[in-house]
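question for whoever is on the cluster today: can someone run the full assembly for these? three chains, 831 residues total. i dont have access anymore since they changed the login thing
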Amino acid sequence: MELLLQTLLNGLLMSGIYALVATGLALSLGVVGIVNFAHGEFLMMGAFLSYLLFAFRGVDPLLSLGLAFLAAFLVGGLAYQGLIRPVLKAPELNQMLLTFGLAILLQNLALLLFGADTRVVAPPYQATTLSLGPFFLGAVPLGAFLLSLAILLLLQVFLTRSRLGLAMRAVAQNRLAPGLLGIEAERVYLLAFGLAAALAGVAGVMLSVMLYASPTVGFTFTLKSFAIVALAGLGNLKGVVPASFVLALAEALVSTYLPGGGGLVEAVFFLVLFLALVGRAWREA
Amino acid sequence: MKGFGHPTLILLFLLFFALLPYLPLGIWRAFLLDVGFFVLLFTALALSWDLVARTGQLSLAHGAFFGLGAYGAGLLAPQVGTLPALCLGALAAGAGALVLGWVTLRLHGLYFAMASLAFSEVLRTLALKLPFTGGPIGLPVLPPFGGNWPLAAYYLGFSVLLLATALSLWAERSPFRLAQAATRQSEAVARVLGVQVVRVKLWSLFLGSVVAGLAGGVYGMKTLFLSPYDAFSLARAVEALVIPIFGGLYTTLGPLLGGVALVSLEQALRLWIQEGYLVVYGAILILVILFLPRGLVGVLGRHRG
Amino acid sequence: MGKVLEVIRVSKRFLGLQALKEVSLHLEEGEILAVIGPNGAGKSTLLNLLSGLLRPDSGRILFQGQDITHLPPEARTHLGLGRAFQIVQPLPELTVRENLLVGARFGKPQVRQKEAEAWVEEVLRLTGLERRAEALAGELTLLEDKRLELARALATRPRVLLLDEVMAGLRPKEAEEAVALVRRIRDAGVSILFIEHLMPVVRALADRVVVLDYGEVIAEGTYQKVAQDQRVREAYLGRGA
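^ ran it for u. tokens below:
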């Protein structure tokens, strides 16, 4: 029983990162309407930024969080202007291919620059654990989880209270045909895409401490984000958090109870996803 | 029906590949035949994906169909011989497709893609865990026809491409084209116009998966070895859709052009640039989409699907 | 003669909303029936139920005596029940001719290619679309879109045609032509049930009118009779609909 609860706890803590990245994807998907296969690469970039700053300048990852947010936002904005905007009017499949090409480019650029080895960011507090009764909570996972929640809460406030946030939701609800874009909508798209990238970037910093930074980690997260968004339902931003929890939980349960390991974790998640998608479709009939 | 698909070009393609082993290739022969083989197989796979995409079903399960065919043929060949094994493997893929297709009839767009991906991942895990598949160590596969004919795998691959091309052309030139196009552009409208959408979707998925399964079976007989990560590869499933988008969607010529271009490009880049060749590959994909939105076929003139 | 389409006590609920409640009506052979009512009365839901894109929670639908309540849309089309959509949905990447060809070829079982092509020519002529036959359906004007919608439904050789507000957005002259076209279609042997908001069109075309309000039938009869019905007036004017 204790093991189960501890496992659930571990899963919960991990879900924060998933929720951050997946929410970013949901934003770019819902507001800009683009299927971005390169989304996870922003996470990868955030992770490496954290590593580089730590390894070469001794910058604590806590500081890198903010830097990664800004840097990823900037890069995301540039990517939007240069690459995404031109293809918004093109068929969806073209958009997918473009972002896929971008993902390949970024991932392999990272491989070229950093090699395939994983790089861990190990600040002094990395191994600290807190105990809560019979349970152990890693300080870093706990911090990451709480921080993710805080960021998502801020985002929620932004979307419901600020003018730009409301504009974003309006655009998401009623996406105009490209070509009818006003300047206001253009700004909203840029902001949304940049924000999506920033969320992923921040998650990347967290990941670099909790796990590692690696060139291939981006695509894995892209995939998981898509699965989470599909599980939550397109357009259902609030559903992303519970869906992230389901993924993180499934992974934690499988890795604890099914030491068959490799591949099984993902398979269980995908099985759940498959059943959920099919079940929902047949129910709606 | 009007003449779609630039038949002469297609014929030239096929002729070229049919004759490739007999051309004077010098020291490049082994390499070029290898590249040629993979062009044949992955182009066939791409065509099989396009065939399904024409109904609006964006499949990420073609890796699974490829793998089902590969393992099916690999496991059965010692018992029943090369050709029957290939057919049975393909049928296994077809059966999988019917199950997936039936269950996902009401899923569209991203949801369908995710469900098909999930399907593929689950199957890969099964291949990893089931006792008779050789698990992560892999499955050795016998060469075709007992290894007596060195070009056997190549020409089997060619036959698969031939079949894929024929199916694609048939779908393009028969009333089936309209049924598929209507289904893709609006299922509600298609149904109200009398199109039996369920049949169209399932048939397309079945045919596409059978071709993918054949390709998988031949693949195993060439590489002489199968592993779950290779046979049920997501990268291959993605390549199956990258090629048609790059070359020109919903056509026969598009995947053919795209397949030749991309597969040879990848091999050439790998040879010349080695480290980091994929960076260039990714850049090329981006540039083509930005400047050739209709894919390579768009360069040849307007095409409708 | 006889009832070619019958709706028997059909109900449909969406989440909290009762869209249709025990609605019964029928269409006589050779008749043009109008279904009118304020916004939200359930007219489009009725049409979706008739064409098979939705299933009723209860009740039955009969087509030429045959129970089609659970048949999918394509099967109903094969039997002869055709439909034109309100929000025009052309198949944008196909030409006008190809759009019609889908209907002509697949609207009935076992239609041969030559037959289908010949019929498409007829329909193009009938609906005045010949000059736009090779244009992509995604590039048409609104008027042409509406003609296409009608033409496509015709291409499936219906015995009963369901029309959903096909006059909306047309200028008076265009509406006149459309009315004449609908009459020609009826004279060719097709029974018609149409939803409409524009009263002049209803008065000009309808043999009979059925009025829906909040998902229920509140009146039925000729246009004159229905126009004087107190309940109908209240439904339209009393709530400022």
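summary bc i know u wont read the tokens: The first strand of chain B starts at residue 139 and ends at 140. Chain B is about 75% helix and 0% strand.
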